[in-house]
Each structure stands twice: as C-alpha cells, then as structure tokens.
Write a structure and sequence with these properties.
heterodimer; A: 263 residues; mainly alpha; elongated; B: 314 residues; alpha/beta; Rossmann fold; Alpha-Beta Plaits; 2 domains; 11 helices; 14 strands; 26% strand
Chain lengths: 263, 314
C-alpha cells in the first residue's frame, strides 16, 4: 500500500483550518469569549463615569472621558482575546491533541498561524462591542471619522496578534494552561505601564520613563487618535512600527519556544 | 526496499532517567509488531521518538525509509499515529476532526469528503459522525482516533496502547479492526501494549521492553517455547511454604510467584503433576490450590526480568 503522495501541505489551508476550529469551539462555548468582551465594556463604562472630570487635566486633549477610555478598553479587550491562543494551545497540550497536530506534516508556523488567526477573529468581537457601547450609550465622538475607526481595529487586531504570540511562547515553554497566569501578569503590566489610562504628561517618576519607552504607548496613541482629532501619519507611523516590531519579536519567540514542546 | 522501521541503539534520557536505553529493532513490511512492557517501561517514549514527537538523546531510527531526526516531515507523511488516551478535541464532531486531519495531511477537499465518509463507515461511526466527540464512549473515541490516523493511508501505523481502559467488547472490536487493516491494506502496524493477550492475539513478532531495554524479541510462539517447561503453581499456607518449596524443588526451577504461592517450571511436563502432588502430600503440605499453565508471554516476561507484568497472572 502507499500513502497519498501529497505535496507539501499548503500552510494557508492549515491556518484557515486552525481558525475554523477555534471559531467552532467558540461557537460551542461562548463563555470562552465572555471575559474578553465584558471586561473592556466594564472598563469603558466604569472609567468614563468615575473619571469624567479627569479630562480637565492637561494632556487629555478631549472634553469627554469616554473618548480617552474607549481606546484603552479596546486594547484591553484585544489583548485579552490574544490570550485565547494560549488557552487553546494549553488545552491541546494538556489533553494530548497538540501531538496530533504536531505529528502532521505541516509547518509549525502554520499551526501557530491558525491559533493567532483565531485570536484575531476573537478580537473583533470585543473591539466591536466596546465601540457599540461607547458610541450608542456613552456618547463617544470620532472626529477622525472612518479612518479613526480603521485605526481602532488595526491597533486592536495588531495587539491581539502580539499577545497571541507572546502567550503561545509562554504556553509552549511550560506546556500547561496554568502558565496563562504568567502571561496575564506580563500582559497587564505591559498595558498598564503605558499611556492607557493617563497621558504621558500626567505620569510621574519611573512610570513616566517606562511609559515613554513602552512600545504599547505608541500603539495606544495610534488607536486613540481618531477619538481625539484627525488621524495623522505622525501618530500612526510610530504605532505601526511598534506593532510590527512587537509582532516580529513575539513571533520569533513563539516559534523558538515551539521547539521546546519537542524537548 | 528498506524495512518500514529500523532502529539502531536508540536512547532517550530525561535528566538522570534513561527512559529508553540503546534499543535495536527492525520491523518488516506488512508486519504487526507488538511492543510489550509494563507501565513506565519506555514504550511510549520509544513511540514518541519513532513518530518524530520526541528527539532521541542518541542512536538513530528510520521510519518508512526516512530518518526521524533528519527528515521528520517525510516521516510524518508516511505514518499514522493513535497515541495513548485517544487525544481528541471533545468539542468537535467526528466529521469535523476527520476533515481537519485531511487538511493537515494536504488531502484535496473533494476527495477528503469521500475519505471521511469511508473511514467513519470503516470504524462504525457513520451515525455518530455529526455528534460531538465529548458524547462518545471510550471505545468510540478509540475508533475515531484510529480513523484519524488513517486519513492519508499511512504506510506505518503506530498504535500506542490502543485498548487501555476499554471494556472487553470494545477491545475485541478494535483488535478486529487492526487485523482487517493489516490484512486488507497491508499496513505495517507498530503496537505498544501492556496487555499480554493483546500482544499474543495481534502481533506476529514481539519485543518485550523493561526499564528502557529490550529484554526479549521474537514471535510469541518462539518466545514461549524458549521459556520451556509449563508452570505449576501451588498455593499453600504461609507455614507450609518452606516444606513445599523443598518438596517441589526436585521437579523444576522455581519461578516468580505471588505471596503464599510457589511456582516451578515443571521439567517433566504436564504428566509430572501427579508426582509433585504426591511429594507435597508426603511432606505433609496442605494444598489450597493448584494450577498448571503452558508458558505464556507473562512467563516470558518473568523469565527475562524476574518479575510479573502488571495485570499478568502470577
């Protein structure tokens, strides 16, 4: 008997199948996405109300707290969605299904791509939900127009890719779902040590210095610009560079740590 | 054409633990090869190396003509793997998992649909194909796992303890399926098991592994005949053990046995049992139970290691 003489398995098909599998699981257990949707909605509602007057401080560049907080909540939701890649890979590693994927003649990056692609699709849900709540119920503005909305989605999707790679690297290293706790600590600390909640002028001491060099600061600025005014290349370019740099770095990290699964 | 599996001095260590210790194996085309050993003997580690999931510490292995370290992708195209515990996503349906498996092996979409239907029929899961795997019984999961490992018509099929945890009916159904696969398609099967009966029933040749080392290799019949005499087991009270041991020692060499039992390889064969019973009676030993067995694979294992296999008769 002979095996099917299949050529090298096309990676795009494997990526698509990975995305499809993730979405099927999501459809069957919708609670998988609930924290990533509810938490940013809670953020934008609670912070916009509690800190309504904070925009009177220098640096906020808007007269409504919701315009500031929506971008922050979008980034939180997108980053949380990125955790889904680690959740799925961790589950597969623990129950052994990941071995079935690994023993197929596919490229590792195709398997990783499927997990990341799934998280990009996941991220669209909280991003859209936060925007709906912000515009429909909290009276948010978008002076940047359609381009501003595009920036929100671009930043959110980019952040979910970065977080997916990062979390996958961690899960591949420890081969357990429990390692998601480490990923959460890294995610929260990197997000909070940025201009997510306050403009750089309002941040003091070492936090100011960290926020200034934190690449996530540039991504949040790119995401937020449409809520504060016109979309400009001067704000978009550093955000794109930061995103691409983080994607490259975390992507290499995930690929390197994938080898650890073999160990 | 080279043999489907050729293993030379293959070893794998985890820290100070040598899980697989310089094993050598050759499996010929179309053969069902049994890899028998107790839990923790190194069976799964060996399979994981042969299926490219784990890198060897030293030695080499070629599967379907390709080196497992040098050309893992080529090996993966040629092998089917059903690992321990039927690792299947319980949220997916049987059909969805089979289609995913087809994509992973690069099968064209059109032929995939037919292939999935054929495989579900082959393993008797057509009616359950659209049900979530989480609702399947253990036997159904194993059969689906087997189907998943067959989507690309592998030359070599690795089954890692395929019937562990299954009820006897499901176990026999799976044995039948493995036999059919081997007979109908000529698939070479590498089967690991801790069940003596499974190895005896399915495998044409067997390697017994213990503490990472292969301690015996050959056909079940040749291995059993090499052990020699049938085993006579006599249960006595603890106080009578020294007397019984002494009386029975004239009839053959003592073999490992459980507490309050003495086992010997009966040199004179089955006809010698009356002489042994008479000797025990003369010695004043009260006999509680007597058994006489032709050599089994468990005897082969005991002969090689001085221990009985878990679950094996002692």
């Amino acid at each position: 008997m002979s095996s099917f003489d299949s050529p090298q398995v096309p990676s795009f098909a494997v990526v698509f199948a990975g995305i499809q599998r993730g979405l099927i699981r999501l459809q069957r257990i919708p609670s998988l996405i609930l924290p990533a949707v509810l938490m940013p909605i809670f953020f934008v509602v609670a912070f916009s109300g509690s800190f309504a007057s904070i925009v009177e401080l220098e640096g906020y560049e808007t007269d409504k707290a919701v315009n500031w907080m929506t971008a922050w909540a979008v980034m939180q939701g997108a980053a949380f969605s990125g955790m889904g890649a680690g959740g799925l890979a961790g589950t597969d590693l623990e129950n052994g299904f990941f071995d079935r994927l690994r023993v197929a003649p596919t490229r590792p990056m195709a398997l990783i791509g499927g997990l990341v692609g799934y998280c990009v699709c996941r991220a669209l849900i909280p991003i859209t939900a936060v925007l709906i709540v912000a515009f429909a119920f909290l009276n948010a503005d978008m002076p940047g127009g359609l381009l501003g909305v595009v920036m929100v989605y671009l930043s959110g999707v980019g952040m979910s890719v970065v977080m997916s790679f990062l979390v996958l690297g961690i899960v591949f290293t420890f081969k357990t779902l429990k390692s998601l706790a480490i990923a959460q600590i890294i995610m929260f600390s990197s997000m909070f040590l940025s201009v997510g909640q306050a403009p750089i002028q309002a941040i003091e001491g070492w936090l100011h210095h960290v926020a200034a060099v934190n690449p996530i600061t540039n991504v949040i600025r790119m995401c937020r610009q449409g809520f504060l005014g016109e979309v400009t290349w001067a704000t978009t370019q550093p955000g794109l560079i930061a995103l691409l740099g983080m994607m490259l770095g975390t992507g290499i990290w995930a690929r390197i740590r994938y080898k650890k699964v073999d160990a | 054409m080279s043999n489907p599996i050729e293993v030379t001095e293959l070893s794998r260590s985890f820290g100070n633990l040598r899980a697989v210790d310089s094993i050598n194996l050759t499996v010929t085309s179309g053969e069902v090869f049994g890899f028998l050993g107790p839990n923790g003997a190194g069976k799964s580690t060996a399979v994981r190396m042969l299926t490219t999931l784990l890198k060897p510490t030293s030695g080499s292995a070629r599967v379907a003509g390709f080196d497992v370290v040098g050309d893992p992708s080529a090996v993966r195209k040629k092998i089917g793997v059903a690992l321990q515990d039927a690792a299947i996503d319980p949220l997916m349906t049987g059909n969805e998992l089979l289609r995913l498996q087809c994509v992973l092996h690069g099968l064209p979409k059109r032929s995939s649909l037919k292939r999935c239907g054929d495989l579900l029929e082959r393993v008797g899961l057509t009616a359950a194909g659209d049900r979530r795997v989480g609702t399947y019984s253990g036997g159904m999961r194993r059969r689906l796992d087997l189907a998943l490992s067959l989507v690309h018509e592998p030359e070599v099929l690795f089954l890692d303890e395929p019937t562990t945890g299954l009820d006897p009916t499901s176990r026999m159904a799976l044995w039948e399926e493995v036999r059919n696969l081997n007979k109908d398609l000529g698939t070479t099967v590498f089967l690991t098991t801790q069940y003596l009966e499974e190895a005896d029933q399915l495998a044409e040749r067997i390697a017994i592994i213990d503490d990472g080392k292969i301690v015996r290799e050959g056909s079940p019949a040749s291995l059993k005949s090499a052990v020699g005499a049938p085993t006579l087991r006599v249960d006595v009270s603890e106080n009578d053990l020294p007397l019984a041991r002494k009386a029975m020692s004239h009839f053959g060499e003592e073999r490992p046995a459980r507490r309050n039992r003495i086992a010997i390889g009966l040199v004179s064969g089955t006809t010698g049992i009356t002489d042994v019973l008479k000797a025990l009676d003369d010695a004043g030993v009260e006999i509680h139970h007597v058994e006489l067995d032709e050599p089994s694979l468990d005897d082969v294992f005991a002969d090689a290691t001085g221990r009985r296999l878990e679950g094996g008769q002692v």
